[in-house]
Amino acid sequence: MLEKFNRFLDDEQQLIFQMAEIFVNSAEKSISINYLQKELGISRHQVLTVFDSLEFIIETGDMTNVNTTYNGQGLLTVQGLNTGYLKLILKTMAIKSVRLNILLNMYLGIYGSTTQFLTQFGISRATYYRNIRRIHHIISEYFIGKRRRNEAEIRQVIFSIIHHFFDNAEVLTNNLGGQVAEAIDQLKQELQNVSLTFTEKGKLINFAFVQAGRIQQGKLIKHEYAVDRDLSFLNVMNSMWQLNDKDLKGELEYMYIYLVINELITDPIDENWNMSPLGEINMIIIKQINLLDDIFGRVVEPGLLQQVRQELTKINTKVFSPFYFSETFVDPVKVPFFTETYPELDLIVKQMLEILCTSNQLRLDKSILTQVYYAYMLFIMERLPTNILSNSVKIAVDFSNGRLYTRYISAQLRQFKSLNIEITNELNEDTDIFLSDQALEKQECEQVIWEAPPIAQDWELLGDLIVKIKQQ
Fold first, then answer.
1. Confidence (pTM)
2. What is the pLDDT of residues 38-77, one digit of tens each?
3. Distance between CA 93 and CA 327 in Å, rounded?
4. Class for the domain spanning 5-94
5. Which of 291, 292, 286 is nearest to 304 (CA)?
6. What's the CATH number of domain 391-471, 3.30.1450, 3.40.50, 1.25.40, 2.60.270?
């Protein structure tokens, strides 16, 4: 199924990307035209046309390790295409996408007037307005629904779209991208104790790019967040915005809260901020902490649950604020993995979600609930002793190749530590899995035989067996 963001690509670009995804995800790198016809819902001639376009992007995109061939007998081959190249293909097409650039011009005005846009991209007015109708449909259907959104929410939608396609907006061919990148570099100098990672800087540039574009369009943040903090360190941004003092306050507070919520600066989340969900979130967190205390309170160090409460506040505030890149985890298809692998933890997370759903003030939909599910799951796995939730799977490791080899396999096994396993070299009545190159005569536990050093498939099968035992 086509991801909602990729609907902003031009129609042929969508087919190119879908074809590239099929080659990346398929174990077979030679795929028949007939199969691609069925998967993409297009004719044989269109498949070959799309393949030619994919070849052109690969050849002109410095993807030297990727090889493409057509044998003339119905078989197309792409070797060496991986997820990194897939992202590069997406970015390359996005830069040239007429539909996506119309969207950016509609909301950010980065290409000027309609006439200027038509001249730069070489399209007709009919094509321009046909794409505008399509854009309105996509945004209404997949992003904001029918209700009216405030300025912060509109910016969030545009920000999430840009961030999907570009690691930072500086790649867009207009002066604004460069100006934003320079302003962020100046801001980093003001924030002397802050070190931004590659992805954090790119995300911040995208956020500031949307903010600057909306300001240039005259679309300002009118809401005052009542931030009790000297924000003069952010004044470097006004060299680009050129706002008067009255309008500047709201925009500075808007950027400041983004920096705090995304943990780019270490200031605490202030309960006095005029963010309507905060009071409701605090009531929910009290109930969630009570739940976690009932489960983990007897075994965790004193004070840990108070730290957990502060971190849980950050998680909930992020998800329900208009400053959060809200598409971090959006795929409900991945939820069954956690359900099957960590059934006890899955139950706790779903109880936390039930508490969340008692709120009548928070905007909850399937996408939001999926994001919160992932956030809660990963948070608890990182911060709390989940091993108390179920019995460990005991694995006896004993290879005739010698103790050095046995220790090597044991060390590799620790990659499954999140599955709550115990590793030993002694076989006894409590052993769940016997891992060796020799077979037991009496099979009193599960046996896994590796007569040669394990390959990826061996590790995958072992992981599946661990999960199976945990479910019994």
1. 0.76
2. 999 999 999 999 999 999 999 998 888 899 999 988 999 9
3. 21
4. mainly alpha
5. 292
6. 3.40.50
